[in-house]
Amino acid sequence: MTEHTHFVEIRHAQKSYGALEVLKDISLNVERGQIVGIIGSSGSGKSTLLRAINDLDPLTGGEVWLDGIQVNKSLPHRQYEKHINAMRQQIGMVFQHFNLFPHMTVRENVAMAPKLLKEISKEEANQLAAEQLDHVGMLERIDYYPSQLSGGQKQRVAIARALAMKPKLMLFDEATSALDPELVEEVNQVMKKLAEEHMTMIIVTHEMDFAASVCDRVLFMDKGVVVEEGPPEVVLENPSQKRTREFLRKHIEGAS
Amino acid sequence: MGLDFSIVPDYLDIILLGVAWTIGITVASALLSFVGGIFFAVIALYSPWIIRQPFRLIEWVFMGTPLLLQLFLIYFGLVQIGIDLPAFVAGIIGLGLHFAVYNSELIQTAILAVDKGQMEAARTLGLSRGEALRKVVVPQAVNAVIPPIGNNMIALLKDSALVSVIGVSELTLSAQRVIGKTYRPFEFYLVAAAFYYVINLCMEWVQRKIERRIAVSR
Ligand SMILES: Nc1ncnc2c1ncn2[C@@H]1O[C@H](COP(=O)(O)OP(=O)(O)OP(=O)(O)O)[C@@H](O)[C@H]1O
Ligand SMILES: [Mg+2]
Fold first, then answer.
1. What is the pTM of this model?
2. pLDDT digits (tens, 9 = 90+) for B44-63
3. Are the beta carbons of A52 and A85 closer than 8 angstroms?
4. What confidence category does residue A3 fall into, taking pLDDT thresholds of 50, 70 and 90?
């Protein structure tokens, strides 16, 4: 047995779709309270890596550990289902397209999973939902349906929904990419607030300024490998790798 | 002999009893077809191959043969193997399963149409596949199929007349019985038609109510 001294530990992650290898031996450690940003061009494997952490896209090789427990450990199917459901309760995930449940109110969206999975009453779950919604500034819309909200509001509700499970780790997959530019800031504010509260986060993003302002560490991925990794002021402003420089240059050109 | 509706009130009690039976059988088999439809759809989409096979046979029987034959089979056929159902129960089971198979097709299509991000979001929160289906996917699919299922239920109402052949005194058979006494087919068939029309309107009204309720959540 090897010691697992890091809060999140990805060891030799490998993922193939048939002959296409999209993650090539990636290792990554994240400490408690740390915020790691992942940048890279489209198709470089950012989402795949993020989704491997909660086993939404299972790895074909390698291990993922969270707080001393292996997430993707091999167990008989039944036991694995129980194990992974328990692990996922500890790993919040926020998607680019929100994926709110359209048939539920904002309150129900947030309260549903705690009500179902935690040993709490309906009232406690609703109370919890109200607290989390207050946290993201969405308490006023608690009785609305998702269709009645703006994109930024939807994403804040989606964040509250993930937080209601009291996760140890939050994963963000381009949480603001689908938003109109004027709505990006309100979501970024919520994420910054979580950062101040020392939530451990792994954030896939296309927003270099945001990454620079919240991340302790930034990873640049290309073609399934981590090309460069370090503090944002190095990776984003003074990268040592040619590929990183090219990516950033193209990104600036694309943005302006 | 011209049309004369003046004798209708004398037989209205028999007709109204028929109306009650028609409504009762329609509502009961509609509910069965709804629950059965969800059940068949979930089996078809999510169960292992070996479990799906007997259900495919059931589906084939209910889709590929006349409803009339199915009613005979359930009412007269099952007696032979010791299952002696009251006629109205046989009627409800026959109508209910027949339309369950059609509803199942609609629900399957609707389930497959639910965005896969919905399942992912639910699983990410820690819900099992079954819980995610029950709480997230199926309710959305059901919402989407209310209008086409509504159409099926109107067809069910009309086909409920078929249970008269196994002796359930629903509206059509009641009308026939009255006609047997009065020799006034035109009047009483028209009266029956009028009642079917009214029930039809009520069903459409209920459907609109449900749709409006659901529209809020879109
Ligand atoms: N289910 C799948 N089957 C086959 N290939 C896949 C599948 N999912 C992803 N891929 C491939 O894996 C590679 C990495 O995809 P991924 O979504 O992780 O990229 P990304 O870095 O998140 O890109 P983007 O910035 O566009 O979101 C891509 O080449 C993609 O085509
Ligand atoms: Mg992606």
1. 0.84
2. 998 999 999 999 999 999 99
3. no
4. low
| pLDDT beyond 80 at B216 | no
| Domain architecture of chain B: domains with CATH | 19-170 (1.10.3720.10)
Residues in chain A closer than 8 A to B130 (CB atoms): none
Task: Report the DSSP pairing between strands A35-40 and A20-30.
Answer: unpaired
**What length is written for chain B?**
218
B117 and A88: CB-CB below 8 Å?
no
List of long-range contacts for A26-30, beta carbons under 8 Å, 24+ apart: A26/A62, A26/A224, A26/A225, A26/A226, A28/A219, A28/A226, A30/A6, A30/A169, A30/A200, A30/A202
Ligand nearest to the CA of A42: 1
* Two structure tokens written together for A176: 């603001």
| Residue reference for tokens 């309710």 | B139
ipTM value of the model? Answer: 0.93
B143 touches chain A (CB under 8 A): yes
B211 touches chain A (CB under 8 A): no
The owner of tokens 């290309």 is A222
Q: Which residues have a Cβ under 8 Å from the Cβ of A65 and sit 6 or more positions away?
A: A4, A6, A8, A9, A10, A11, A71
Contacts of A204 (CB under 8 A, 6+ apart): A37, A38, A39, A46, A47, A50, A172, A173, A174
- Report the chain B residue with the minimal C-alpha distance to residue A164: B125
**Best mutation site among A23, A39, A42 for ligand 1, i.e. most ligand atoms within 8 A of its Cβ?**
A42
